């Protein structure tokens, strides 16, 4: 919304997918002598004398540093990696009350052709395939989905958003085949009935039933798919409650309130410890802004300490 208010038209797409951005950043970092550890789980952040001193890895290795910055979500960073004992009780109470209950599921698909939308008679890649497509029949339908989410129930008709990467980038799929990402909004992390292992396939059924109202051939195009509920997102990526933006992006958790009043400057109340990522200002989206802002703060503090 902020970008659009400034006159920016839509979003940009990186050729090769978002992973290409990560690879470019990796190369730039390594060219500067940065060491990157892959498939390396952090056990905890070591605090000594009210200062962050090091990071301990699951394999027992300890990495010392003058500054430690976490782009994990705020709850994981504060409650799990550091631990409650290093903060005041009132602060921990505020962190635990941050809102981050799931919110959406993702489905990744490979297709053996293009969806054909009923309103457009075309068999070639068109603007409708390059667009970020949203499907919701009415505001009332969105409100109903929201309230089912609040009561830990799967919406009967969740809002559906889709993007076909291969319509822009032919390198991500073979000729005449396509990749599509789908988001289903207002999908709860915890369920009133059953669990996600039992009910995960319901999300695929909902997507197909809603999408084929507008693109009747979608079902016959699907070759492979991967369903990621909020529970799966937490399990695979370590995001507390599987919220892709780390925290809900409501008015009380945006701008100077993100993640909490007093923390929008990326400094945690422990010397040498910082946070960045989607749970900090300006929030979710692949912008890099939070990391850039945090880096500027860290550089400023390191200069002062010298």
Automatic annotation (TrEMBL):
MF-aspect GO terms: oxidoreductase activity
Domain Amine oxidase: 5-290
InterPro entries per the UniProt record, alphabetical: Amino_oxidase, FAD/NAD-bd_sf
A Pfam family matched in the record: Amino_oxidase
Record note on quaternary structure: Interacts with COX5B; this interaction may contribute to localize PYROXD2 to the inner face of the inner mitochondrial membrane.
Matches recorded under PANTHER family: PHYTOENE DEHYDROGENASE, PYRIDINE NUCLEOTIDE-DISULFIDE OXIDOREDUCTASE DOMAIN-CONTAINING PROTEIN 2
Main function: Probable oxidoreductase that may play a role as regulator of mitochondrial function.
Protein name, as recorded: Pyridine nucleotide-disulfide oxidoreductase domain-containing protein 2
């Amino acid at each position: 919304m902020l970008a659009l208010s400034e006159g920016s038209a839509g979003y940009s797409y990186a050729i090769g997918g978002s992973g290409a951005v990560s690879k470019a950043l990796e190369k730039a970092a390594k060219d500067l002598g940065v060491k990157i550890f892959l498939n390396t789980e952090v056990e905890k952040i070591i605090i000594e004398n009210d200062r962050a001193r090091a990071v301990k890895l699951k394999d027992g290795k300890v990495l010392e540093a003058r500054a430690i910055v976490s782009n994990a979500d705020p709850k994981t960073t504060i409650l799990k990696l550091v631990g409650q004992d290093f903060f005041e009780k009132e602060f921990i109470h505020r962190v635990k009350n941050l809102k981050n209950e799931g919110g959406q599921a993702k489905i990744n698909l490979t297709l053996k052709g293009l969806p054909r939308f009923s309103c457009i008679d075309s068999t070639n890649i068109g603007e409708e395939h390059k667009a970020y497509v949203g499907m919701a029949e009415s505001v009332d339908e969105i409100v109903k989905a929201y309230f089912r989410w609040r009561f830990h129930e799967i919406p009967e008709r969740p809002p559906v958003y889709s993007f076909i990467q291969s319509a822009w980038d032919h390198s991500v799929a073979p000729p005449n085949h396509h990749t599509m990402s789908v988001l289903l909004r207002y999908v709860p992390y915890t369920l009133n009935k059953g669990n996600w292992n039992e009910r995960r396939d319901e999300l695929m059924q909902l997507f197909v039933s809603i999408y084929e109202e507008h693109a009747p051939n979608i079902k016959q195009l699907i070759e492979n798919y991967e369903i990621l509920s909020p529970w799966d997102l937490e399990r695979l990526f370590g995001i507390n409650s599987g919220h892709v933006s780390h925290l809900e992006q409501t008015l009380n958790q945006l701008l100077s309130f993100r993640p909490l009043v007093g923390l929008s400057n990326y400094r945690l109340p422990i010397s040498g410890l910082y946070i960045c990522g989607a749970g900090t200002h300006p929030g979710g989206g692949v912008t890099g802004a939070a990391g850039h802002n945090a880096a500027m703060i860290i550089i400023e503090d390191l200069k002062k300490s010298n």
